[in-house]
C-alpha cells in the first residue's frame, strides 16, 4: 500500500445540512475511512444526520469539531482542497485518481486533510489559500456541481481503490483447467457427431465457434461440471428405448 | 469512445425514497447520463425528489416509468445488475471499471440497462436472473452497502470517465437480441426438462448459471442460431427410434 488510509481526514468546512454530514459518514465507512472533521457544522448530533449514516454512526460520534479551519488542519502534513472552480491562481487542478496515485504517497505516513466546502459555495478563498494541492472531480461541464456527500464519496472511493488490491469475492471461483475444457469440447464433439449435427454443418467452423464462445465466457470448473453433466444426461436419454406413442 | 453514453439506461427497481431518486438523477447529470427508468417507484414527482435533483430535474421529468421489470428492459441488448451479494450462481462479479472497459463496448451502440435494486434489499432473485452481467462496487467489507444514489453515482462516474470519442466498429458481428437470447434459454430449458436434468439438479441454479455463462460470452446472433440448431437436432435425435443392437 502506498499510504495508510488511517492518516486521511475528511474535513467538511461549514457543512449546512445534517443529511449530507450523515451521508458523507456513510460514504467514508463504505470506503474504509473513519476520521471525520467538522468545522462549524450544522447540527449533526441529530436524527437527520444519524439516519443516513446508518452503520457509520460511530464516525459521527467520533467526529472532531472545530470552530475554525486553521485549528482543524494545524497538524496536517498535507492539506488538499476540493473545488470545481479553476482559474489561474488555482491551477494546476488534479483529479482524485492523480491525488491517490501521486500526492498521497508523498505524505509518507503523516496526517493528510482533505477539505470539502459548504454545499452552496464550496471552499472560501481563504480556505483555498491554505491548500497545498487542489483537486477537482471530472464531471459533465453542463452540471459539474456534485452534492457534498457525493463528492466525499468519489474522493473516498478513489482512496479506497488506491489502498486495497481489490479482488471481488474473497474466494474467487476456480477457473476451469485447460484439460477439463478440452475434455468438455471433445465430449460435445462426440455428441454432435452422434446426432449428425457436425456432418452436415461444416464441422470445423461449428466446433471453433463453440470453442470461442466458451472461451470468451472464461469457464469455471463448476460450470464445466454442469455442462458435462448435461452432455452425459443427453447421451443417456438418447440411449433410452423410444416410447412408440411419441412423447 | 468505446461506447455511447446515450445508450445507457439507469433502471431503479422499486426505489423507495424520493430523495434517492432525485439524488440519483443529479448524479447521472453530473456524469453526463440522462436516461432514467423507474420500476414501481416511490412518488418522484414531488418536492422531496426534485429538491435534491436540482438542475437535473429534466431527467426526473423525462423518466420512463414501468409497472414491472420485464417491460422496462424489453428492448435492451445487455442487462447489467448491480449487487453486493456474491454466491456461486452469481459469479463472476465484475467491478464498475471492468464493466466500462470490457463489457459496455461489446453492446456496440445498442441499448444497455443497468439495474439498481431497492434501498433495503437490492435486486430480487428474479431480477438477478434477468441479468447478463453482474457488477459489484468494491467496498469496505465491514460495511459494503452503498446508499442507492451513491451506488448510481459510482457506476455513472466510471462510465463518464470511460467515455471517449465514439467510434463504430464497422466489422463487428451482430449481437443477439435479448429476445433471441430468451428464446434460446427457453429452448434449452425445455430440452433439459425433457431429459430429466433439471428435475434432479436444482433447476433454478442450473438455469441461472447457464444464463450467466452465456451472458458473459455476449452471444452473437449467428452463435445463437448454431446453438438453437444443436438443440433442435438433439430433439430430433431423441425422437428417432432406437437401434436395439446398440450404436
Task: Please summarize the sheet with the most strands of chain A.
Answer: 7 strands, parallel
Number of helices of chain A: 11
Given the C-alpha coordinates, what overall shape of chain A results?
elongated
Query: Overall mean pLDDT score of chain A?
Result: 86
Assembly level: homodimer
- Number of domains in the coordinates of chain A? 2
Distance between the termini of chain A: 64 Å
Biggest β-sheet: strands ordered side by side in the sheet of chain A: 3-2-1-6-4-7-5
User: In CATH, what is the class of the largest domain in chain A?
Assistant: Alpha Beta
CATH topology name of the largest domain in chain A, in short, is: Alpha/beta knot
Give me the CATH superfamily of the largest domain in chain A. Answer: SPOUT methyltransferase, trefoil knot domain
User: Hey, roughly how much beta strand do the residues of chain A contain?
Assistant: 5-15%
Which consecutive residue ranges of chain A, at least 5 long each, have pLDDT under 50?
165-171
CATH architecture heading of the largest domain in chain A:
3-Layer(aba) Sandwich
Number of strands of chain A: 7
Radius of gyration of chain A: 29 Å
Task: Please specify the SSE layout and strand pairing.
Two copies of one chain form a homodimer.
Chain A: E1 8-13, H1 18-30, E2 35-39, H2 47-53, H3 57-61, E3 64-66, H4 69-73, E4 78-82, E5 93-94, H5 96-103, E6 112-116, H6 125-129, E7 133-135, H7 148-163, H8 178-194, H9 197-200, H10 203-217, H11 221-239
Parallel strand pairs in A: 1-2, 1-6, 2-3, 4-6, 4-7, 5-7
Amino acid at each position: 500500500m502506498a499510504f495508510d488510509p488511517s492518516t486521511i481526514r475528511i474535513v467538511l468546512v461549514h457543512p449546512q445540512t445534517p443529511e449530507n454530514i450523515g451521508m458523507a459518514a456513510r460514504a467514508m465507512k463504505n470506503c474504509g475511512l473513519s476520521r471525520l472533521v467538522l468545522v462549524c457544522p450544522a447540527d449533526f448530533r441529530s436524527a437527520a444526520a444519524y439516519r443516513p449514516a446508518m452503520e457509520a454512526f460511530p464516525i459521527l460520534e467520533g467526529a472532531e469539531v472545530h470552530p475554525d479551519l486553521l485549528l482543524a488542519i494545524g497538524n496536517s502534513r498535507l492539506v488538499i482542497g476540493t473545488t470545481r472552480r479553476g482559474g489561474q491562481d488555482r491551477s494546476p487542478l488534479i483529479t482524485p485518481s492523480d491525488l491517490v496515485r501521486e500526492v498521497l504517497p508523498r505524505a509518507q505516513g503523516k496526517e493528510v486533510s482533505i477539505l470539502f466546502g459548504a454545499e452552496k459555495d464550496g471552499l472560501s478563498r481563504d480556505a483555498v489559500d491554505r491548500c497545498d494541492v487542489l483537486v477537482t472531480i471530472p464531471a459533465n461541464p453542463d452540471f459539474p456541481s456534485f452534492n457534498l456527500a457525493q463528492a466525499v464519496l468519489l474522493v473516498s472511493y478513489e482512496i479506497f481503490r488506491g489502498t486495497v488490491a481489490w479482488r471481488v469475492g474473497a474466494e474467487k471461483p476456480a477457473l476451469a483447467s485447460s484439460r477439463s475444457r478440452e475434455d468438455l469440447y471433445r465430449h460435445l464433439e462426440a455428441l454432435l457427431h452422434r446426432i449428425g449435427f457436425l456432418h452436415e454443418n461444416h464441422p470445423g467452423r461449428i466446433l471453433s465457434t463453440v470453442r470461442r464462445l466458451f472461451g470468451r465466457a472464461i469457464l469455471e470448473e463448476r460450470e464445466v461440471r454442469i455442462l458435462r453433466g448435461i452432455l452425459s444426461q443427453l447421451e443417456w436419454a438418447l440411449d433410452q428405448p423410444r416410447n412408440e406413442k411419441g412423447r
